[in-house]
Amino acid sequence: MPIILSDELAADAWLDTFDFSSRRAFFDETTVAFLQELSQALLKDAAARQYPDLATFAYFCRRANLRTLAQRYTDAQQRSGWGTVVHIAPSNIPINFAFSLVMGLLAGNSNIVRMPSRPFAQNALFVDIFDRIARAPEFRAIASGNVLINTARDSDRLAALIARADGLVVWGGDGTVAGFRALPKKPRCAEVYFPDRRSSAVIDAAAYLALPQDGRKRVAHDFYNDTFLVDQNACSSPSIVFWLGEAVAVSAAKDGFWTALDEELTRRDYRLDPTARTDKHLDLMAITRTLGRPARLKPHSPDIWCLEESALPGNLDLRFGQFVEIDLPSLDGIEAHLRLQEQTLTYFGVDPHELLRCVNDGTGNTVDRIVPIGRALDINPMWDGKDILAILSRRIDLVEPPRRGAASM
Q1: What's the CA angle centered on 352, arms 372 and 171, to 5 degrees?
Q2: pLDDT digits (tens, 9 = 90+) for 317-327
Q3: For labelling alongside 271, which of 138, 167, 214, 393 has CA 20 to 30 A away?
């Protein structure tokens, strides 16, 4: 599955070998077998194991996990793919393209995936290993029915492929989503859009302070994976941290938490590239401009900036280690601070059912996920409140005759 560049894409020669509009059964056995082989290869590869997002992806693709996932769909026998699905992956999140591709595969589709414009080492590793597994004769259909492309989002050729496709998945900002919504498509094209979202973390101060040193290191490790691993660019990466408890406990928990996180950054040798560091300062300037005054900034280290601003507009970027801190005596009242675009709440030391009760009161927030800290980037077919596998698969409605003797209307 070599990546097709813009010139090759425009030439159309690749379409001679691509099985356009081909579709398979829902959780097709060959697809599951292929993903199991891919999972094993990724987990055995020493270079791949260095990337937590690749490891998470590999665990998701294990046969046992896929079987468990398939059991959620009691109508699996009635489902198959729509045909060819075009996927527009985000440019700043590695491995998201692979997650989108796998959702298309499991739903029974052939797939054309536009790759991120930014290069990532783990993406290159994934493509190499995918290609190696797909060369096996038994996976020839996987190789011929899936392709990666590298082209501009506004490419005429990309628009032509979308017009011909049976499905479209778009990950991107609101502007990107609006642009792809407006493109011509088949009347029955299955469409899934994932626009801008924001996320937060909730930490109980007393529960955190009760942890031994190793426990605090584990929380820092998990929080790093939710945030700094992707420079906070993922929609599920928290940008607000809610601290629950009495003021003295909250103050002590903050000091311990941010210190442990800074040590984790040092251990991981985290470094922002010059462009990202400039963007971080520009984001802070945008906040200052919006507030009409300097933001209340409390740097914990060169890489960790905390803002004590509880009323920032939800559309402001908080990336590259910028967090708003909001202190609350309890979970009651948290809903008032959630943004209209709120997606994921990660938590530590909090009863998730109580958190659900506090945010699921019908007053306007859009929380879709409540998961432990460290699970923000977990792969799941349920995303933004949408079942991706259900949307990307075509379901045949099957009505059985009434039983003899049953009352009829």
Answers
A1: 55
A2: 788 999 999 99
A3: 214
Can you tell me the mean pLDDT for 16-32?
90
Q: Which residues of 246-275 are buried (b: 16+ CB within 10 A; e: fewer)?
A: eeebbeebbebbbebbbebbeeeeeebeee
The correct answer on CATH 3.40.605.10 for the domain covering 3-196 is yes
User: Helix, strand, coil shares of the chain as percentages rounded to 5?
Assistant: 45, 20, 35
- The burial of 139, by beta-carbon neighbours within 10 Å (0-12 exposed, 13-18 middle, 19 or more buried), is given as middle
Residue 168's CB is within 10 A of a number of other CB atoms, namely: 23
* Cα 119 to Cα 142: distance, rounded to the nearest angstrom: 24
In the DSSP assignment, the letter for residue 364 is: S
Dump pLDDT digits (tens) for 238-253: 999 999 999 999 999 9
Domain ranges across the chain: 3-196, 198-383
Beta bridge partners of 114: 88, 149
CATH class of 198-383: alpha beta
Query: What is the number of H-type helices and E-type strands within the chain?
Result: 15, 17
Cα 33 to Cα 140: distance, rounded to the nearest angstrom: 13
